[in-house]
Amino acid sequence: VRTERLLVTGRVGQGAAVTAILDVPVDYLIVGAAELAALPTAGTPWSRMLAVADSSWPSVKLDDQDNQVAAKAVAAGLVYARTGTASYRTKVVSVLNQVRATQASNQSKALAWGRQVGGYVIAADLVGYRDPGFVAWVDQARTVTLPEHGRWKSIQGTMRTTYGNWGAWCTAAHLAASRYVGDQAGVDTAIRVLKGYLGDRAAWGDEIAATAGYDPAWSCAATPSAEYRGPGINPACTPVLDGAVVEDVARSATVAPLVDDTGRMYSWENLAGYLLAARLAQRAGFADVYDYQGAAFRRAAQFLARNGGWPPQYTVSYSTAVTLTRVYGVDFGPLPGYNHDRCFGYTDWLTP
Amino acid sequence: MATPVVTLTPDRASYSPGDPIVVAVSAVDADNSSERLVLSGTDSQGNAVTVALNIDRRDTFTITSAVWERTGVALAIDQAGMRVSGSVPSA
Question: pTM value?
Answer without folding.
Answer: 0.88
